[in-house]
Amino acid sequence: xxxxxxxxxxxxxxxxxxxxxxxxxxxxxxxxxxxxxxxxxxxxxxxxxxxxxxxxxxxxxxxxxxxxxxxxxxxxxxxxxxxxxxxxxxxxxxxxxxxxxxxxxxxxxxxxxxxxxxxxxxxxxxxxxxxxxxxxxxxxxxxxxxxxxxxxxxxxxxxxxxxxxxxxxxxxxxxxxxxxxxxxxxxxxxxxxxxxxxxxxxxxxxxxxxxxxxxxxxxxxxxxxxxxxxxxxxxxxxxxxxxxxxxxxxxxxxxxxxxxxxxxxxxxxxxxxxxxxxxxxxxxxxxxxxxxxxxxxxxxxxxxxxxxxxxxxxxxxxxxxxxxxxxxxx
Length: 330
Description:
Blueprint (H helix, E strand, L loop, with lengths): L1 H74 L1 E4 L13 E6 L4 E6 L12 H12 L4 E3 L18 E3 H9 L4 H9 L4 H15 L21 H11 L3 H7 L3 E5 L6 E5 L10 E9 L3 E10 L2 E10 L2 H11 L5 E4 L1
């Protein structure tokens, strides 16, 4: 009996051990199954996120490509005019109509012949001044009694900001403003003029040369082609664009005690779409006018050189050519 009892006890112990082992094995199995499900869930979630990211990236790329394609398409729309230069009732010896976006000339007459730019040289003076000084720098007017020609009315010793000098340079075409700007440049007048000519080379204006910052001397030379492209480059500067589109403005010296009542000489600023750019006149140069006008979301630059009536000529070109331009694709 005792042996039988012992045998039963041993068997129970053995079965108990087996049961516990099975129990723990099942727990481990359940854990493995749960971990597998968790891993699968995380993998699936990650896959969803990757799919969404790839889709969104594709949309962004597609949108970017579309914008580039639209820009490229716009570039391939070239302006065309049925008018020939000989049909235009203008007195100007040289003319050019330039479309800013496509960089295409719509119509030209003697556009590569050299003429004196007169005060339209101040477009380059402005670019170099903005590059060298910015708008906030204060300059001092000295020795301005030697300045000839049109003036903004600076006083000897007056301290004034570059921004206000640019208004005086571009609205009433102040030679005194040009003198102060060039004289304040490192190295003085000669270095400033040298920089004007270097800038011309950088802009590929190969038929342009300056010998003074105001355009007062008739030995300065340029072409209608170069002037159009110079104006286009200058209009990329928002400060320049703002100033040349201003009809009149009162500016002050740094003390606020010396006012300068300035009026733009450009009579075409009242024409819808016109917002600049620069007038010029000397006896040798004749009438000079560089005009920017927006028509049908395109910017056109009209240049007339050696004109008997620069405003009438430009108005005729705007009416006969610019407002009748067709855009053709190729």
